Amino acid sequence: MKKTLMIIGSIIFYLIGLTILSFYLYLELAPKVSMDEIDRIILLFLLAFFCYLGTFLLSKFFKNNKPMQIYLYGIFILYIITLIKLTLFDSDYGRVGINIFDWSKENLEVYLRNNNLIPFKTIIEYIARQDRIAIINLLGNIIAFAPMGFFLPLLFKKQNKLKVFIFTNIMIILTIELLQFLSLSGSFDIDDFLLNILGALITYGLFRIRKIKSILNKIFLIEKNN
What we know:
- This protein has a domain at 99-226.
- It is built from ten helices and no strands.
- It has helices spanning 2-29, 37-62, 66-88, 105-114, 121-129, 132-145, 148-155, 162-183, 190-206, 210-219.
- The longest helix has 28 residues, at 2-29.
- The radius of gyration is 20 Å and the shape is globular.
């Protein structure tokens, strides 16, 4: 009876997650509908939460953590897709993806003029402004890469080494910056780079705290030898 309830519960939670995913995709693809960052975060959180509940019951049913491992990889891939969407294809910020055919001398001059290579210049300007846009940009750049500090060490053993973790994040950020450069959908700001790294390191450090790591191990059914 208990196992039957686990399966039924798991199916119900997955169906709720599938419904949320369908609604999310509809909002993303509908031409006359737009979502801001908060809407995306709420929907993706609900999707991850209900899929987690379904996966937790499924892992308990099979008495192993393989379903949870698959779930974590799936959520990581979803996070990467969302990150790419926000940095390269977010129309609210004039980003339309990779398009090397829009290159011109004027576009290049605009791009170079908008770059910032002076550390803390933009951060100080945002702090001085203290408006909604400044707060969103500061916190947004920190939060955007914060999940890296959770997913990378958890899914890839080598990422538990701080040097490897930092190097990986630097390469990911530089790749995104290069793609933005090619698509003319953004400009390089050293402060954005620093805030991205800071966000990743904050979560990396938090999940190294023994009590927090122990709680995460129980939540995600992580075996101690992993």
